[in-house]
Specification:
The complex is a heterodimer of chains A (about 200) and B (about 240). By secondary structure, chain A is mostly helical. Chain A contains nine helices and no strands. Helices cover about 75% and strands about 0% of the residues of chain B. Chain B starts with 11 loop residues before the first helix and ends with a helix. Classes of the chains: A mainly alpha (about 200), B mainly alpha (about 240).
């Protein structure tokens, strides 16, 4: 929802011309995705930390790493995936050709998954902090730059009708790196926050 | 080989005394080498055949640029040591290096944009090298912000240590950004072996590299002393040292 609003604000503020919007579309879509993922991240652990669920996770004897990985995946299924699936609507309005939609959805799905993983670390770190929301953005933004670079690159190639494999491989590599390392770091961060 | 000498650095009073003794040596050596390097670089070295005299800012820009990455790495290593072996002094060292690193990164960006104006015609271009260096600055800000936002000092130590370690993934990206992407920024200059510069240009540069490292060491030791005093303000050794 937020993503749609951000995407519709760009034609109003930038230019309503479709040809110029098409050039800006990768940036608009990815910035929108990043902002909405940031908004959602705040609620990834916060409520569970407040009502003690996270503590029960940590004490349950199960691996906290796997629990948080599952939680992050669920979070992505409820925020990132719907975003990627609803993106074609915004993309068509920005003048993106229909042929590019499939690869754009794939890139956004992969990228938003990587964003969720990176964000999980930062959300865990800010659990014990005051003014967590502002800090969360400050921590997440520099770390999510590679994802944005390759994600918007893939989308640009898709719109131009050229091969998107290169940036998609990089995006996939980042996501794999995130899957292997981010849950460990997030678990460490949450444990620190709970101490 | 006896490794126990290393353990003394884990003790705050020993580290305080060590820092007190060595600060003037590092500071003095840094000052001498900096004067020597500046004289060699600004007066003795010949002008560049393409960039004329404007290239001479390299004698400040290149050392601070490499130092900005080196400090981040050192900070992350100190944070990891603190996290793994629970060494309070290591956490204090990481906390003390972050603001220095941020300022050195600012110095890199400022000297770089001063160099960019005559060479590229603009103070700032959206180039991978420049942008990634800017994000290094944001990483430092994030680290300091996280540290400041957590009230419990031990929690702040550990949480910011995790962040510093996670942020290390950006260091190679910044370091090799000029080689990986086609960039407006010139690629790294080979200094030794099959060098790109004549020796009279190279030695002042190497001197300045060493001078800035010593400068960082001196400033770090001063800040570390302040940090140790602040952290251990209840301890008896602090009262003895200050009385």
């Amino acid at each position: 929802m937020f993503f749609m609003i951000v995407a519709t604000l760009f034609p109003l503020t930038l230019t309503p011309e479709l040809s110029r919007l098409r050039d800006a579309a990768p940036g608009v879509l990815w910035i929108g995705a990043l902002l909405s993922s940031l908004l959602a991240l705040e609620f990834l652990f916060r409520d569970d930390a407040v009502d003690g669920t996270l503590e029960q996770f940590a004490l349950s004897g199960q691996s906290l790493t796997w629990m948080l990985f599952a939680k992050t995946c669920t979070h992505w299924l409820l925020t990132g995936l719907p975003l990627a699936l609803s993106a074609p609507l915004a993309a068509l309005a920005l003048g993106v050709p229909v042929a590019a939609l499939g690869s754009m959805i794939a890139a956004l799905a992969l990228g938003s998954f990587a964003l969720s993983l990176v964000g999980a670390i930062c959300a865990g770190l800010t659990l014990g902090a005051r003014r967590g929301g502002v800090l969360l953005s400050l921590l997440t933004l520099p770390l999510s730059v590679p994802i944005l670079v390759f994600g918007s690159d893939a989308t640009r190639h898709a719109i131009a009708g050229t091969e998107i494999a290169g940036p998609m491989y990089m995006l996939g590599a980042i996501a794999v790196l995130g899957v292997t390392l981010a849950p460990l770091a997030a678990a460490a961060a949450v444990r620190i926050g709970l101490e | 080989m006896n490794w126990t000498w290393f353990h003394r650095f884990g003790s705050a009073p020993y580290m305080y005394g060590f820092a007190q003794r060595w600060t003037p040596w590092f500071g003095g050596a840094a000052l001498l080498l900096m004067l020597l390097g500046l004289y060699g670089g600004l007066v003795l070295a010949p002008p560049d055949y393409q960039q004329k005299d404007a290239y001479r800012i390299i004698y400040v820009h290149a050392p601070v640029a490499s130092l900005s990455l080196m400090i981040y790495t050192a900070m992350a290593v100190a944070a990891a040591v603190g996290l793994i072996w629970r060494m309070k002094v290591a956490h204090a060292a990481a906390a003390a290096s972050a603001p220095i690193g941020a300022w050195i990164t600012v110095a890199t960006l400022v000297t770089g944009s001063l160099w960019g104006k005559p060479m590229w015609g603009a103070y700032w271009v959206w180039d991978p090298r420049l942008t990634s260096e800017l994000f290094l600055l944001f990483l430092y800000f994030g680290y300091m912000g996280l540290r400041a936002a957590i009230e419990d000092p031990q929690k702040a130590d550990k949480a910011s240590a995790v962040l510093a370690i996670v942020g290390v993934v950006n260091v190679p990206i910044i370091k090799y950004s000029v080689n990986w992407w086609n960039s407006l920024h010139q690629p790294a200059t080979r200094l030794l072996g099959k060098a790109d510069m004549v020796w009279s240009m190279v030695w002042p540069l190497l001197t300045m590299f060493l001078a800035f490292m010593l400068f960082f060491a001196a400033v770090l030791l001063i800040r570390l002393r302040a940090e140790l005093l602040r952290r251990e303000r209840g301890a008896s050794w602090v009262r003895e040292v200050l009385s």
